[in-house]
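Try this one yourself first.
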């Protein structure tokens, strides 16, 4: 009767389980701890960012209110304003309301308290003069104090603010200035909501609001919230603001829809208003969610790799035992000459195999040992050769990379020197061409064919010099020379000297406000010429170049340079401002890179709109400079 076959493979399963426990359990504990730490840090950083954002918004709001108050103050201090001439004052006030749309109403109140001049945007005719003696703004102004009132609602929906400044006569050596009356203005605050909406257009991702301490909304990134019958902060947000113990703070609260949000606030000290911002927790913790996904994927791969390695190691460990089992079965059957080859490892399993082999014939034992040793040496020798070859390839690759880096460094250092050295031969060629033309012209030997070739040489020399200049100018670090400049006048000056070809039509449209900017005139001129030159190149037969300026808002002016060429393909638009990128047969690809560099250096921005077959428009956005005389 044959004995039952033994159960096999249990050692491999045990080894696999132990490998998994040893490798994955510590990793899982460490990863879980790190994820928890990352969540805490991310929450703290997100809250700090929200608080800083609320503080910055508060500074902007305070600046806008102070700017409106400054406009009133400067109007009251104009040369003839204190003479209390209603006609003259009305002209001044009309000019202020024409330039500053935030003013809804401005009135002049003399010491008797009855208005003498009043301009109201909503009352075009039949304006009634009011008695303002009890108005707190008039009282403050007559005591030489400036006044900023509380929030009120215009037409029941629009938030507004009343402010007043004293009208003082000119101070002399023998007298102090006296109060000649009060200048009272009403300012709309809807511009703050517009600014917040432009910055945070999607309420589901982020919201920002400005409120009074009792929760009354002054402005909101969702303007519809301000125009409600009773515009107030949400109950949870108001409770956070009401319980504040410092000027800034925040935390996690529940929104109206029941979801948790991360809210933060900051107090505007001079106005005693509160700026509140909030962001959904899932948006704030998006990085943590992505981290969990990445960690999960890594753990899955780690499990797969660990299982495969464990199976390989288990097979390597149990294989000698299987060979020993088969050999023992052959010995039990009496086949001493056909024993299988066994690998004698340097461990307890090898000792067991060695003891087993000693039970067979001594000669057979020695022969098998020699064969096993030779096989082991061959395997090690092959492994060593492969490692040496791999290290040799790595060293050769590292050496080639080092040589390439040194070569690139030397080329970068020589670029400037080579550019200047090439200019000298070009200048000599240019002078020689001029001498040849002069000499042959005097002797009447300059025929048409020779003149055409001379012109070709001159054109190529000029093209080479232009390329060298363009590369050197782009790579050279030049100090920025800012000048206060009237944008319309300077553009007109550039266009008046630009050599437009006869087939190109030029159209201009300048903003009547004549904005003033602070730019490097040389860099701006080069950028404009580059854009015009690119437009002319894509219109070889006929076309139109359009140049326009327009004030986008009180802070930005937009310069548009358009052509009616073939347009730029969409796949090329992302690379047009990259240095040395070009689709032309000739050129360096630095023209638009120079434009981008100029705009970036003055803290502006550039945008391009192009339709294939219709043309391209480049929009240059430049910061507006206010209150500075034009040089």
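Now uncover the answer:
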């Amino acid at each position: 009767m044959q004995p039952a076959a033994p159960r096999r493979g249990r050692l491999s399963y045990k080894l696999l389980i132990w490998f998994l426990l040893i490798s994955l359990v510590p990793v899982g504990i460490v990863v879980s701890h790190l994820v928890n730490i990352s969540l805490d840090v991310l929450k703290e950083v997100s809250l700090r960012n929200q608080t800083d954002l609320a503080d910055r918004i508060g500074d902007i709001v305070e600046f806008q209110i102070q700017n409106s108050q400054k406009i009133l103050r400067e109007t009251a201090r104009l040369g003839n304003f204190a003479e209390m001439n209603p006609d003259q004052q009305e002209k001044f006030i009309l000019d202020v309301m024409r330039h500053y749309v935030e003013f809804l109403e401005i009135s002049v109140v003399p010491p008797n308290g009855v208005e003498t001049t009043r301009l109201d945007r909503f009352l075009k005719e039949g304006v009634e003069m009011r008695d303002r003696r009890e108005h707190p703004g008039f009282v403050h102004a007559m005591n030489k104090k400036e006044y900023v009132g509380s929030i009120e609602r215009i037409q029941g929906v629009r938030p507004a603010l009343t402010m007043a400044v004293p009208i003082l006569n000119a101070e002399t050596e023998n007298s102090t200035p006296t109060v000649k009356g009060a200048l009272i203005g009403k300012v709309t605050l809807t511009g703050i909501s517009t600014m917040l909406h432009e910055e945070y257009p999607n309420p589901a991702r982020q919201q920002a609001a400005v409120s009074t301490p009792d929760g009354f909304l002054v402005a909101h990134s969702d303007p519809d919230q301000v125009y409600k019958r009773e515009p107030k902060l949400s109950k949870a947000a108001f409770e956070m603001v009401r319980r504040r113990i410092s000027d800034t703070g925040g935390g996690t609260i529940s929104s109206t829809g029941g979801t948790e949000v991360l809210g933060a606030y900051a107090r505007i000290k001079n106005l005693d208003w509160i700026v509140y911002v909030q962001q959904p927790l899932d948006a704030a913790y998006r990085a943590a969610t992505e981290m969990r996904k990445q960690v999960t994927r890594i753990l899955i791969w780690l499990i797969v790799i660990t299982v495969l390695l464990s199976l390989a190691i288990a097979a390597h460990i149990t294989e000698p035992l299987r060979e020993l089992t088969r050999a023992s079965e052959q010995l039990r059957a009496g086949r001493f000459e056909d024993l299988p080859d066994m690998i004698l490892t340097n461990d307890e399993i090898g000792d067991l195999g060695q003891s087993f082999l000693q039970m067979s014939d001594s000669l057979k034992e020695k022969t098998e040992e020699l064969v096993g040793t030779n096989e082991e040496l061959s395997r090690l020798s092959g492994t060593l050769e492969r490692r040496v070859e791999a290290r040799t390839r790595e060293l050769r690759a590292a050496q080639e990379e080092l040589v390439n880096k040194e070569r690139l460094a030397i080329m970068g250092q020589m670029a400037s020197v080579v550019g200047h050295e090439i200019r000298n031969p070009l200048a000599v060629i240019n002078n020689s061409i001029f001498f040849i033309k002069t000499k042959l012209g005097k002797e009447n030997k300059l025929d048409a064919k020779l003149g055409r070739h001379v012109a070709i040489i001159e054109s190529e020399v000029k093209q080479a010099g232009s390329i060298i200049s363009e590369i050197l100018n782009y790579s050279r670090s030049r100090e920025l020379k800012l000048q206060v400049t009237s944008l319309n006048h300077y553009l007109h000056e550039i266009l008046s000297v630009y050599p437009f070809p006869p087939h190109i039509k030029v159209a201009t449209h300048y903003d009547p406000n004549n904005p003033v900017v602070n730019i490097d005139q040389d860099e701006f001129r080069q950028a404009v010429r580059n854009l015009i030159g690119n437009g002319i190149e894509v219109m070889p037969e006929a076309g139109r170049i359009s140049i326009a300026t327009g004030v986008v808002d009180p802070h930005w002016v937009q310069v548009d340079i358009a052509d009616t060429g073939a347009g730029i393909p969409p796949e090329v638009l992302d690379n047009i401002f990259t240095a040395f990128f070009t689709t032309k047969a000739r050129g360096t690809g630095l023209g638009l890179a120079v434009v981008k560099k100029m705009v970036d250096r003055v803290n502006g921005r550039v945008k391009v709109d192009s339709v294939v077959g219709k043309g391209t428009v480049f929009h240059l956005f430049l910061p507006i400079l206010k209150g500075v005389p034009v040089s």
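Discussion: The mean pLDDT is 77. The longest strand covers residues 158-168.
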